[in-house]
């Protein structure tokens, strides 16, 4: 093979690599990424995704890190710690809504939560859209749209209880 032949095959190789990369790029644009977890949330309704199945594969360790990042600025999580902007969340799973004595809840949360307990499902609904759960609430959080993330957070919150409970 002379020099020109070599050059031609080099060009051919480069061209085919280019075509492959290009085709991959085009395919990635054309074929949507179908992650089902998020689609469920776009369904009409009250965002009430059943959290049970997500809890079974939830990761409390990840929940703990996320809680520190997302909620830590406004909530305390240790028994007996003072309320911050929001009420202390130690033992929140299973406790009546808006029931930390001495914390001044909004009328919105009192109203929406009257007679209700923070079950795992109620927490999931709340975290997916606080303002939808209790319109006018003072908890200014946009809402966590990913049910897997909410489940991770809830299983972590579940660990925050006295040992004898
Ligand atoms: C910007 C501050 C802020 C952030 C961030 C925040 N919260 Fe809150 N949270 C509040 C406030 C304020 C209230 C009281 C709401 C009211 O009275 O309307 C509250 C109330 C709550 C309640 C009701 C507690 C009860 O005693 O009834 C729960 C549960 C809760 N937050 C969980 C969370 C979790 C979990 C996160 C993180 C994913 C979070 N919050 C992030 C400020 C915040």
TrEMBL record:
Keywords per UniProt: Electron transport, Heme, Iron, Metal-binding, Transport
SUPFAM superfamilies: Cytochrome c
Domain of life: Bacteria
GO MF annotation list: electron transfer activity; heme binding; metal ion binding
Domain Cytochrome c: 58-161
PANTHER family xrefs: CYTOCHROME C
Protein name: Cytochrome c
Organism: Acetobacter peroxydans
Lineage: Bacteria, Pseudomonadati, Pseudomonadota, Alphaproteobacteria, Acetobacterales
């Amino acid at each position: 093979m002379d020099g020109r032949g070599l050059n031609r095959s080099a060009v051919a190789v480069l061209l085919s690599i280019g075509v492959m990369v290009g085709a991959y790029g085009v395919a990635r644009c054309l074929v949507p990424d179908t992650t089902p977890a998020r689609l469920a949330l776009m369904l009409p309704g009250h965002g009430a995704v059943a959290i049970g199945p997500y809890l079974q594969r939830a990761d409390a360790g990840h929940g703990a890190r996320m809680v520190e990042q997302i909620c830590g600025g406004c909530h305390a999580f240790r028994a007996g710690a003072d309320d911050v902007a929001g009420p202390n969340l130690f033992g929140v799973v299973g406790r009546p809504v808006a029931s930390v004595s001495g914390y001044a809840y909004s009328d919105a949360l009192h109203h929406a939560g009257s007679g209700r307990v923070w079950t795992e499902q109620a927490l999931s609904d709340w975290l997916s859209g606080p303002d939808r759960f209790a319109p006018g609430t003072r908890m200014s959080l946009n809402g966590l749209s990913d049910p897997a993330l909410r489940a991770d957070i809830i299983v972590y919150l579940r660990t925050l209880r006295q040992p004898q409970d």
